Amino acid sequence: MFQLLAACGLPEEPVMAPPETDKATEKELQRIRRLPENRVCPNCLKEESLGFSAVCTTFKTFICHDCKSAHQSFSHRCKSIQMSVWTLEEVKALDDCNGGGNAAAVRKYLGKVTPKDRVKQGSTLELYKRFIQRAYVDQRWADDQPEVSVPEAPQALPAPSSPETVEEPRSRSRKGRHRKRREKAANLQSDSVQVAPDGLWQHDLRSAT
Ligand SMILES: [Zn+2]
């Protein structure tokens, strides 16, 4: 058919970006959406046997309607599976191997959540919002919470101004070096005192020979 059209000299169909997700991307999106872990809302544990219709793209989670509303109140970006246009990159980002999907989000943000921390299904929007705030904004249940304080790094900076008070190896060695230099200088001074007679003596010896 295409060959026929081409033979007739008719222009090919213009390759414009259609206002819908392309077939391969759609297929991949549906595959990821239907994975067992993505059919359970990571926040309220609601199950959807056919898969959810919303994704929070900020945290790459497949979520129920209530959690979507809660996320949106924090301006977390959410997209509809059916109504939004998806690019292959966006869909790939939802794959577990790229750190996306519900299992990855549970590992990252909900590693330490206990059953009583979770929002109960059918709760008010306020309770959903409170859970989303704690889990994703405050990240209080994150498994890999970074150490907030960086010990000694800020204290090490003003060390040169007060080397006496800081018990830090580098400043101590510098102090030691200073002391050695001072001792050396003192030796030089005491040497110089003896230099005259020494020199004289050597001079005398040399002149004697
Ligand atoms: Zn939910």
From TrEMBL:
Domain Arf-GAP, chain residue ranges per copy: 26-149
Ranges for region Disordered: 143-209
InterPro entries (alphabetical): AGD14-like, ARFGAP/RecO, ArfGAP_dom, ArfGAP_dom_sf
One MF term in the entry's GO annotations: GTPase activator activity
Keyword terms: Metal-binding, Zinc, Zinc-finger
Domain of life: Eukaryota
Listed Basic residues bias regions: 172-183
One Pfam family recorded for the sequence: ArfGap
Protein name (Swiss-Prot/TrEMBL): Putative ADP-ribosylation factor GTPase-activating protein AGD14
Organism for this UniProt entry: Symbiodinium microadriaticum
Gene (UniProt): AGD14
